Amino acid sequence: MDDAKEGDRDTSSDAPLPFRAAVDALRAARLRPQIEVEPTRAPQRLAPFAYALEATVVDGDQDLADGRLVLLHDPDGHDAWRGAFRLVTLVRAELESEMAADPLLPEVCWSWLTGALQARGLACGEPSGTVTRAGSHYFGGLAERPPASQIEIRASWTPREGLGGVPDTAGHLAAWCDLLAQVAGLPPAGPGDASVVTLPQRRGPQSR
């Protein structure tokens, strides 16, 4: 996908240097091969500068989970963020019925996010979000389809800024991909992921 077509605010020389450096780090990050990541159009009204990525966890010809990660930047800072940067995400995956019925599912899914950040030693502030599970039953012409369940994680957090006011966006992207892999039921990519809580059930894959 052509980055320039997805919005020129992240590549423009008018963009603040910390934001451009944060975006460059996202573009240069090396991720596990099962996760396909590409830039997408960023929201225009949430912050003066924004950059967005979308990702799909792929196993052969099946999509196991998908998500979107948005980097927001306000050079003047934002009271609600308590910082100049904010990361916003949406992650979705299909679930098996046994997993969807687990009463602890929302708490465990939230721990996947916080655990992924902690496992990579990433500090963040003001985390917030929701975990939603939904079920679908089909009728009429769709009656042959089995019932389906889906989990959706919406979250945002403020990454700690480092030298030059630039957060470790590559690290946060890697942690976000750890979350995607966890939701998709993939095994940990390395020793740093072992502390993330897992559930025994595996969700059913989506067809591409």
Beta fraction:
35-45%
Q: What's the domain count?
A: 1
Question: Which radius of gyration do the C-alpha atoms yield?
Answer: 18 Å
- Stretches where pLDDT falls below 50 for ≥5 residues? 1-9, 191-208
Map the helices and strands.
Blueprint: H1 17-28, E1 35-40, E2 49-59, E3 62-78, E4 83-95, H2 97-100, H3 105-119, E5 124-136, E6 148-159, H4 169-184, E7 206-207
Antiparallel strand pairs: 1-2, 2-3, 3-4, 3-7, 4-6, 5-6
Helix pairs in contact: 3-4
Keywords summarizing the entry:
208 residues, alpha+beta, disordered N terminus
Q: What does it look like?
A:
Residues 1-9 and 191-208 have low confidence and may be disordered. This protein has one domain. It has helices at 17-28, 97-100, 105-119, 169-184, and strands at 35-40, 49-59, 62-78, 83-95, 124-136, 148-159, 206-207. Strands 1, 2, 3, 4, 5, 6 and 7 form a seven-stranded antiparallel sheet that branches. The chain is an alpha+beta fold.
Précis, in short:
23% of the residues lie in helices and 36% in strands. The protein contains four helices and seven strands, in the order αββββααββαβ. The chain has helices at 17-28, 97-100, 105-119, 169-184, and strands at residues 35-40, 49-59, 62-78, 83-95, 124-136, 148-159, 206-207.
